[in-house]
Structure prediction request, 103 residues.
Amino acid sequence: MVEIECTTCGTDEYLRGERQPDDTIELTCEQCGATWIRDPRPSCARCGGTEMEAAPRVIVEKSRGSQMSIQGIQREFLCRVCDADQISARRDGHLPQRLPGSE
Prediction:
């Protein structure tokens, strides 16, 4: 869940949002009257790009001794430029060579 606060007064209770034609959201604080634009689309933290792709991320945990079991799958957004190799591997249905926590 995304927590949104007013950029001026800090409240998170008196906010109203209106979707714009470009898919951004114009937020208005009904407490202090401040307005600002929020872009809900994911962007890359490394390059700032918006060419993102939702990719499955396998969640694994040790179930017995050193045996790893899949506990779930989570969706995460990867950059088509910075994470092209990870996107390709996940699209092919392959798990990483070393699973997290198996070191």
Notes: DSSP finds one helix and five strands in the chain. Residues 1-40 form one domain. The helical segments are 84-91. Strands lie at 15-19, 25-29, 35-38, 52-64, 67-79.
